[in-house]
Amino acid sequence: MNNIIRTSLSIYSQAFKQPTVFSQQVRNKWVDFRQKKDARKRKTVEDYGAIRMRLNVLRKNRIIPMELQEAAHEDVLKQPRDSNFTRCQARCVLTSRPRGVLFRWRLSRIVFRHLADYNKMSGVQRAMW
Question: Which PANTHER family match (predicted)?
Answer without folding.
Answer: 30S RIBOSOMAL PROTEIN S14, SMALL RIBOSOMAL SUBUNIT PROTEIN US14M
